[in-house]
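Q: Here's a chain of 276 amino acids. Please give me its 3D structure as tokens.
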Amino acid sequence: MTQHDTPAAFTDDDLVLFERDGTPPLPTPQHAGHLTHDGADIWYVSIGQGQPVILLHGGLGHSGNWSHQAAALVAAGYRAVLVDSRGHGRSTRDGKPYSYDLMAGDVLTLMDALAIERAGFVGWSDGACIALILGATHPDRVAGVLYFACNMDPDGALPFVPTPTVDRCFSRHKQDYAALSATPDDFDAFVEAVGLMQRTQPNYTAAQLAAIAVPVTILQGEGDEFIKPEHARYLADTIPGATLVMLPGVTHFAPLQRPAVFDAAMLAALAHFTEQ
């Protein structure tokens, strides 16, 4: 079995298939293109009809990492909108340092261009930070945030410890960067620039978290290699009305490792947001 044939029982816990094959192609889009914002050309794709859900990928990755989830969203009647963060995938960047606030501005510009007044957000790692910052700063545009596998202050991160699974993910990111990026030879500089952002941002206080007024589900893999489990609990306890869902048997890479498990949690969170 390969990644390109993904029944409910599909698993890739060690990311062997992800390193070898990447992810399956995204479903056929209704629209894809680039938009220019603040020195970057941002690539995006819109798939399906219905209520819009914006999926924001993790650091060093790209929108294709969400292919399992995009297919599940379309099958459930949603419109999946995927964005390559600036400097990632097919999107470019200028010389400005990476910041979550800057990338949140890219997403708002995309929403305006696609006439999306309000959307649900599914964020993974760096994408989760972008989504929650949008929920904090532009609550009128955010129906809810599924926040998977990130920290909102530097103390929430675990010390980095390389593992074979992490190394396989990094290998795939390097291959995809070479294939997709407008600057395919700049991977090492890209990694350093993104890493600087991750080490220093975001830095939300408890008071800032307590002021968030959109529905939030904190989703955490029980074996996450990068995020302290107590930080996930802190976020759920501090953001008003937030819930914490722990996913057993998976890590920081749950959407790739056990897509059906992640997708069930994702769809449950989105259904909760629409009830608010």
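Q: Can you summarize the key feature?
A: The chain has a mean pLDDT of 96.
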